[in-house]
Specification:
395 residues, alpha/beta, Alpha-Beta Plaits, Rossmann fold, 2 domains, seven-stranded antiparallel beta sheet, seven-stranded parallel beta sheet, 22% helix
Length: 395
């Protein structure tokens, strides 16, 4: 079954560059209302938290992405004043409507299945390298259960940040079914420790929490944008993102590009909507800068829940995947493009270990050119260029 998250309808309006002084054209695509808004600028003004901008209090500033977040009480006054500011690039609502991608199979709590790694030839790849902590994975998800036996006491697990709650404790929990701990496990759980399941690569782990609470709620656009910026500022080489959906956000789009330009290789889940030509935000607008992943099963069939489209780059095991979750030694079976994504993240880590100078284009090409072609010959909307082949990609 699909895990559903509540989705807010975004209020979005775009401010185009002024055709003449003191006039900005505005297109409003949904009813305006009081609340939190993001204001993006062509040039970042000298504004700080607590200042007033066009009658609205500034609650957050992100200078590197040239936007502020404001609390609007009187939208009519705010809109009228904003119409006169030709430095404004865009305004959008600070909604919390992105969602995780996975289909849980929760009765497989402690199953010992390990089919995925054998299917993609991981043991052959591990003959060449197990990965290195010189490669950092900015894992953007629901956090990490650092007390789990796969991670406890390991210096390769960094402090990270919780952008959902706004603190330095990105701990995973029951509200999100330990989704982040599970996906982190597929990418980077400890190899050869006699416990649980292995991960693809022994990378450094930077937990970045964007989901939390009893209903596994999403962080606001402000915090999502800052989370995606954070992985670039922290020097991540690869970022695993098993989430998506929601309305388009220029702030999030800018944040992805910002970190991409800092060298982050983004890997992202295609989604679980069982649909064609439906890759969504925030990945579709930046598809040329992201490795977008669908899921396969033990027989190399495309998963029934896959969101498909021409933007799909690659596929990976994502059906009935066992990994670390709750407590100190809990394990769980889950399915989804969420589970496929970290296998690709880990493969990026292995390739980067052997080729430290490789960037997005070289690693993207290596993964695609060595994939096992499935479905119609060549690229297709279900499998992309095929199912990953770690044995061939790592050489």
């Amino acid at each position: 079954m699909k895990l559903a998250f509540s989705i807010a309808i975004a209020t979005l309006f775009v401010l185009a560059p002024a055709a003449s002084a003191n006039l900005v054209d505005v297109a409003i695509t949904a009813p305006a209302a009081p609340g939190a808004y993001i204001v993006g600028f062509h040039e970042m003004p000298d504004l700080t938290v607590g200042d007033s901008y066009n009658g609205a209090e500034i609650t957050s500033t992100t200078p590197d992405l040239r936007f502020i977040t404001v609390n609007v009480e009187n939208f009519a006054t705010f809109q009228a004043a904003s119409l006169l500011d030709e430095n404004v690039r865009y305004i959008e609502t600070d909604v919390s409507d992105h969602k995780l991608h996975f289909v849980p199979n929760d009765y497989y709590w402690s199953h010992s299945s390990n089919w995925a790694f054998n299917k993609i030839g991981a043991p052959t790849a591990w003959d060449k390298t197990l990965g290195t902590t010189a490669v950092k994975n900015g894992h953007v998800d629901s956090g990490l259960n650092k007390g789990h036996e796969e991670y406890a006491g390991q210096s390769r697990v960094l402090g990270g940040w919780d952008f959902y709650s706004g603190d330095n404790n990105p701990d995973d929990g029951r509200g999100c079914s330990w989704h982040g701990t599970h996906t982190t496990g597929s990418a980077a759980a400890t190899i050869n420790n006699g416990k649980g399941f292995p991960g693809m690569a022994q990378m450094q782990i930077l937990p970045v929490k964007i989901f939390g609470g009893g209903g596994c709620l999403a962080a606001s656009v402000t915090n999502l944008a800052n989370a995606l910026k954070y992985v670039g500022d922290q020097g991540a080489h690869v970022s695993s993102n098993s989430w998506g959906g929601g309305s388009y956000s220029t702030a999030i789009n800018d944040a992805i590009i910002y970190s991409f330009n800092k060298g982050v290789i983004f890997v992202a889940a295609a989604g679980n909507s069982d649909c064609t030509n439906c890759i969504g935000n925030p990945w579709k607008p930046v598809a040329d800068k992201v490795i977008i992943v669908t899921a396969t099963d033990v027989n190399d069939n495309g998963a029934s829940f896959n969101s498909e489209g021409p933007e799909v780059d690659i596929s990976a095991p994502g059906v009935d995947i066992g990994q670390s979750t709750s407590g100190t030694n809990g394990y769980h079976i889950m399915s989804g493009t969420s589970m496929a994504t970290p296998h690709v993240t880990g493969l990026v880590g292995l390739i980067k270990t052997l080729n430290p100078s490789y960037g997005y284009s070289q690693i993207d090409n290596r993964i695609k050119s060595t994939a096992v072609d499935l479905g119609p010959a060549g690229h297709d909307s279900t499998f992309g260029y095929g199912r990953i082949n770690a044995a061939a990609a790592v050489y």
